[in-house]
Amino acid sequence: MSGEILDNRGRGNTGWSWPAVHPEGRKFGLIVAALSAAAAFFAWETIAWPLAFLAIGVLAFFRDPVRVSPRDDRLILSPADGQITQIQKVSPPRELCADDGSGVRGMVDAPVTRISIFMSVFDVHINRSPISGTIRRVVYIPGKFVNADLDKASDENERQHVLVERTDGVQVGFTQIAGLIARRIVPFVKGGDIVAVGQRIGLIRFGSRVDVYLPAGTEPKVLMGQRTVAGETVLAEIGEAPLIEGIGQ
User: Fold this and answer.
1) For residue 142, what pLDDT is reported?
2) For residues 154 and 177, is the Cβ–Cβ distance under 8 A?
3) Which residue has the higher pLDDT, 23 or 227?
4) Per-residue pLDDT tens over the stretch 183-218
5) Which parts of 19-167 fold into alpha helices (H)?
6) Which class would CATH give 75-237?
7) Which of 48, 77, 162, 204 could bridge 40 with an S-S bond, Cβ 3.0-4.6 Å?
8) Which residues are catalytic?
9) Rounded to an integer, what distance in angstroms lies between the CA atom of residue 5 and that of residue 107?
10) Which residue ranges make up each domain of the chain?
11) How many CB atoms lie under 10 A from the CB of residue 1?
């Protein structure tokens, strides 16, 4: 199914399959599996079995399922799997706004809507581009490793800012934030790369958060507490600002 065009009128073929494991995680799974095999060889079953289950858990963490991304220039898709824990008006990070000397304009330093998506260790941790366009900035900031679900994590934790710009100048910024367990942000792209909506742009190891900064005049089409799927869930429609209410049940 990967690379195949599918639509809302029945075109395309699809079916369930085991998700692949991203190469970034295969080495970790193999290391733990090798330790499990060594423990089993020496009949250390009390160690071998937990290590075997840990190896399966590591491979599951780095799973990389195929996603079907809607191709519509009006849509902003979720860059991460997880739960929406914050929706609030804030100014974008300074690194996405300030003149960095490259000649590429940044976001306007004025309040916009930020959507925070928290990823637990059970979520897929491959992050994807919310729109099609050119990567204008990738800025890595070292920092702390406090709980990624806290508001201060956006300003204090280790993080990486990414700015994507469409051909018409519309920009969407997002920030990958490390958490208590996460200890490395792995980028797949660099400044100047052209990406498609839903394309894989990086991952964060072992639990984290992604903040998305919507363009001015755009409000979310998702609710607090809602679950998102990277590359598939529509976060917003550019230029639209609807009030949507929901109920937990």
Assistant:
1) 84
2) yes
3) 227
4) 578 899 999 999 999 999 999 876 689 999 999 999
5) 23-41, 45-61, 94-97, 153-156
6) mainly beta
7) 48
8) 208
9) 33
10) 20-64, 75-237
11) 11
